[in-house]
From TrEMBL:
UniProt protein name: Diadenylate cyclase
Positions of the DAC domain: 10-177
InterPro entries xref list: DNA_integrity_DisA_N_sf, DNA_integrity_scan_DisA_N
Matching SUPFAM superfamilies: YojJ-like
Lineage, uppermost ranks: Archaea, Methanobacteriati, Methanobacteriota, Stenosarchaea group, Halobacteria
Amino acid sequence: MALQISYGDHENVVEIVDRVRYCLESISLSFSEWNSPRIKGPGVYIAVIADRQYGEYADIMGKNQWPISQCMSVYHEDAFYDACETVCLECDGGVVIAVDGQIEPTMVRFRDLGTVPSENGSRIKTVNYKPWMGARHMSAIETSVRPEVIATITLSEESGRVSVFRDGEMESRSRQQIATEWRAD
C-alpha cells in the first residue's frame, strides 16, 4: 500500500494557504490607489504544490525571483509580507510554495491546462471562467486542477480581488468583501 497524504485537508497545508490569502488581503487593503487612473496595483499568482518537480508543467520566468535572502518561508510573517509586497509590485510570474511552507526562488509561468492528459488519457477536468478573469486568474484556476497543486491564490492588480482556487473551484472576494468580519471601515 502506497503512502498517500491528503494535502488539501492537511492542517499545516491549510494553514499555509490561509497565511498566503491573509497576506494578499492585507496587501490589497493597504494599497490606497485602486481607483486612480493609469496606476497599476499590486498583483501576484501563488501556487502551493506537493511536488517540487514542477518543471514538467512550468517554465522559468526570466530573471524574476522571489527574494529568498529576505524570506524563505511563509512562516516568517513580517518578512513574508514584505517580500510578497515587493514581488506584487515589481515581478511577473507565479510564485511556488511547497507544502512545508518553503518558497522557491524561481518564479514561473504555468503551462496551459490543455497540455496535460488525465490518468485515463482524456483531458483534465474543464474549468469555468468568470467574466472578470484575466490571464492570471484563468491560469490559476487551470493550474489548480493539476494533481500536484493543492491551491492557487491570486491578487488582482486591477481590482484588489483575492481568489483561492482548489481543484477548479473558486473562492473569491472583491476588495470590498475582504476581511469584512474584522474591518473597521
